[in-house]
Fold each of these.
Amino acid sequence: MSETKTDAPKKLFIKTYGCQMNVYDSERMAESLDGYVQTDRAEDADMILLNTCHIREKAAEKVYSELGRLKPLKELKPDLKIGVTGCVAQAEGAEIMRRQPAVDLVVGPQSYHRLPQMEAQVRAGKPALDTDFPEEDKFAHLKGRSTARRAPAAFLTVQEGCDKFCAFCVVPYTRGAEVSRPAERVVREAQDLVERGVREVTLLGQNVNAYHGGMTLAQLIRALAKVDGLERIRYTTSHPNDMDDDLIAAHADTDKLMPYLHLPVQSGSDRMLKRMNRSHTAESYLRLIERIRDVRPDIMMSGDFIVGFPEETEADFQATLDLVEEVNYGYAYSFKYSTRPGTPAAERAQVDAGEADERLQRLQALITRQQRAIQESMVGRDLSVLVEKAGREAGQMLGKSEYLHAVHIDDARAQVGDVVPVRITRAMTNSLTAVEM
Ligand code: SAH
Ligand code: SF4
Ligand code: F3S
């Protein structure tokens, strides 16, 4: 036999931090590296990539501690290459290699289509660094999607970057300016995904509703709704100022568009919103939700909040609690403000950390109470579930409702990829139980 060791595929381990866009990017990076198969064990890998997030201080520090843990692997296996990709790579660049010399490769979110050449370079023993914002569209230069069978729900990036410059946020610096992918390419990629078994796509963008790839997001959603075999469409994350009338209307007239909307507001205090450079008010946000609920009364609302933003007083914080009470969120993500170097808010008077912690706990208690009440109100209701995998108990299948609840179906007949009607029998803290109808 002529089989030699060099013919065996090399192993790639990718660890993904941060938002859903990083999940999508990790898939594309893995698919772009010929000659590698993925492993879920770092110890077995010939190449390790950490696809990183810079949104909060803790997220960035995690990367350095993980690199510290990985370093000894390199001593055991001198051919192992370690790379840092994503938003920390973009923000810190060469500093990463200075702080952790075990790193061979650093590539930012807008230039990872150059990863194959960079991989060859590090294999030849030369470190590789690329944090460009290139003119060319990286997606047009990436290899086509893998033909392997896929899970029924997939992410699909349609828009990247941000021009909004909220005073606390690193994203405009790490992802660059707002750019949209051409609609025909998005539709083609969705068709490809459907052929591989996908039934639901979540369209991703830092400001996905600012999409303008030759059409608006509402038009893109309607075009995707015509793709046979694609059953469900979602999109995230939206900015309140980019919610146009047509997108609101799509929630009423496009059956495949799911009744779920993640619409971050950050604070309920106009004073804070102004200092955050959010360019909307609490009132305009509430009126917007009212308009959406007028056409789609059952829409499940989700949001993001920051507590302890510089100069936030108890009265400002109370306004956030009031807004949460008024909206009644099915899901909400709240964060303690984290100082990010290079952003305008980093220079301002910081709120006492203990005070901020205490506010975060109060906000999270309120949100948990709302979520629980909404979960419990689902008992006895008929929902539809996209089945994603087998559940832990015998005969059970696990999937998502139209409102994005995790639903366990007992004694299921349905198979992975089916969308089935169910009746909810029980509400747990993080999931629902149901029987098939
Ligand atoms: N593009 C989206 C989400 C950006 S990041 C949007 O505009 O809403 C996701 C969330 O992280 C933000 O909505 C915000 O709530 C939070 N976040 C961003 N920067 C932060 C910081 N410096 N400190 C704490 N939370 C932050
Ligand atoms: Fe960050 Fe604001 Fe842009 Fe969202 S809109 S990514 S929070 S700057
Ligand atoms: Fe984090 Fe970058 Fe996403 S900073 S939240 S990985 S856009």
Amino acid sequence: MKVEVFETPQDAAKSLAQEVAALIRSRAAEGKNVVLGLATGATPLPFYAELVRMHKEEGLSFANVISFNLDEYSGLDRAHPESYWYFMHQNLFNHIDMKPENINLPSGMVAQEEIPAHCAAYEQKIKDCGGIDLQILGIGRTGHIGFNEPGSDDTTITRQVHLDDLTRSDAAPAFNGIENVPTTAITMGVATIMGAREVALMAWGEKKAAIVKEAIEGPVCIEVAASYLQNHNNAKFLLDKAAAADL
Ligand code: PGA
């Protein structure tokens, strides 16, 4: 697995955004689409900001981009400010020229009995679009990628999961208290993520240093979903100095 360490998150985000822009442009030149797997959270914000800047200042078009987000909280509708639908529109989609019909996120509002079919349809749509070219990831302090908490092995696909207590407490400030944080979510599985042709995981700050070390240098294990990326043939970690401090 490749590990790239940058002075700042902005430097890392710029490097990744340039790579994504090159991929988008080379596919556009061939008249082809590109399928991106996208992530939410604080981590990808400088990356999305750079993509928006490239769209506005350099004319980078997203007209040939199809996206699939990793996950969505159960019970939050699209208008909820903590929903990932809202987050993605606020931070990226509202500022670029993505076609609305090319934007895909799991829905948090599907009736309980319809969730398995909703998840199966999400997996099928990824396949129908030709699979994910590049999956963007953050990492949670539990080692989760998407919401694949400890106990998620590399056979898991899109499904409903319970959120780890640490994940919910990390989200508590945004929800004004842990009691308001959903207890379940729908997430792509580890196998879904491993199916992407390329994976780029970003992590910043000293709070991520310990789990970054486990993911990169620890054993590949069910307790740290990100450790499965060691088995991916085209995965890289983009870190700032603080997140790389324990390596
Ligand atoms: P963060 O979350 O980017 O807000 O740190 C990362 C994650 O939980 O995957």
Amino acid sequence: MRVAFFSAKSYDRKFFTERLKQFRHELIFLEPHLSQDTCKLAFGFEVVCVFVHDRLDREVLKRVAEHGTRLVALRCAGFNNVDLNAAKDFNLTVVRVPAYSPYGVAEHAVALILALNRKIYRAYNRVRDGNFSLDGLLGFEIYGKTVGILGTGKIGRAMVSIMKGFGCRVLVYDLVQNPDCAALGADYVEKETLFEQSDIISLHLPLAKETHYLIDEKALARMKDQVMLINTSRGGLIDSRCLIEGLKNGKIGYLGLDVYEEEESLFFEDKTGEVIQDDIFARLLTFPNVLITGHQAFFTNVALENIAHTTLANISAFEENRLSPMDLVKVEESAR
Ligand code: NAD
């Protein structure tokens, strides 16, 4: 099939071109994000292949469907950027890569925890400057601490298993209990209990109406002073405005973000030398106890291989009418 491949990066070209040898599709790599301004580029393509910052709103979906698109192939797990009701209305099939490397994402969350706790990012610069003072680098032992994990799907489960390995007490919250997590020794609790008792809180829920701003001023107020908050899921789970006050008054002792609610205009691009226009993001960068990475938790060789393989296999399955209902991203999922 002919595929308009939006938001293409050098690593996408490398992994998809390598994998393409096993498939018969034609991929046209396009650097822009898919949006109302760029959707013309997709006209005439049966498939659009997109990533997390492509915007598939009703207007975009309507226009591409009118010009021959039948399949939206997401090369990511999250699908909060697609209007699934509109996709249904315009008879567009939507597929995604539900699991490409849950351990990779969980390991990145743990990397943020360890780096924040032992201030590795500060120690690295200090030692290179010839400053071997330990002042300001005091950490705590993760062993024995209470870790709260919101969302016990594929990534949350991996997170439970790693944090159990550290000797932590693990509290979990999800609408649906995952028996693996209970078997690993995690305790399902109400989210309020998790907020109140956890020393470290890590988010692994999808972004949907129900989870938007799950962490707001009220949720923060319930948390322990000096809590460590980690978000490798989606920026919109946290109301970023309350983070600044939380950091200033010591409610948040450590903040590790791989995602940010307004990341679209920043992440995945080299902005060296540019003035950051987002005042909240710029302020967050000034705190010594904040560590931000630019949506790189997924970024491992295993994940990129799996993303390329599953995306191309999804397109083949659609072409050959072999997609099972389990493979489709359905409207009901966005309503969870
Ligand atoms: P998953 O679907 O396996 O698990 C999500 C869990 O959240 C499920 O157990 C589900 O029951 C639960 N859930 C959904 N809505 C809920 C609600 N309203 N209240 C409580 N629980 C709810 O997903 P996953 O593979 O573990 O991924 C989780 C998220 O991580 C993705 O949605 C994506 O946004 C994010 N992600 C980020 C990166 C990155 O690079 N930073 C990479 C992959 C995924």
Amino acid sequence: MVELDYEEIKNIKLYAQKNNVPIMQDEGISFLTTFIIKNKIKSVLEIGTAIGYSAIMMALANPLLKITSVERDEKRYLEALNNVKKLNLEDRITLIFKDATDLTLDEKFDLVFLDAAKAQNTNFFKSFSRNLNDNGFIITDNLDFHGFVNQPESEIKSKNVRAIVRKIKEYIDFLEQNEAFETNFYKVGDGVSVSRKK
Ligand code: SAH
Ligand code: MG
């Protein structure tokens, strides 16, 4: 695992905690950065930048990596711009302020990282799999959704959470049935899947 002790990184994590920005957990980040190194990933399309934390961690893991990342919340996008600048990663991290639903790109990437609205995973998977290189991967975060996905529905009080959980379960079925990809599920962080294009 890549250990990073930059003051800036600590500050980004602290900001996320204070402002309830749902950045990836340490275990998930460690999994993602190790994956990038092992598989010699050189380009990533990230859906859901938040404040740039995961993009920055991926960029620091591999000095050859280039990332394009999309965020629809303006405040977070601006915060991400600021953070990317602080770490001098502007030449390797391109940030786009847009709803990913309205985004079309011609470029191809080695990895698509889905970490935006959980109910949209299936749509995003379908649309952005067009942007994958041969043998490319799609990684999805939060498949456990804070443990709720493994809980009986009757125990989930919030109607909203129940709806998201239902969508995540549908997405997991979609991945399992998708013949064009081979998907493995990992119990790390908040639950991560890796889908490899066959
Ligand atoms: N990848 C980040 C965390 C992302 S949190 C990290 O680990 O550091 C999820 C983000 O996705 C939120 O900031 C939210 O605003 C954004 N998001 C949700 N739906 C989106 C959409 N349709 N298009 C773009 N961004 C979206
Ligand atoms: Mg996440």
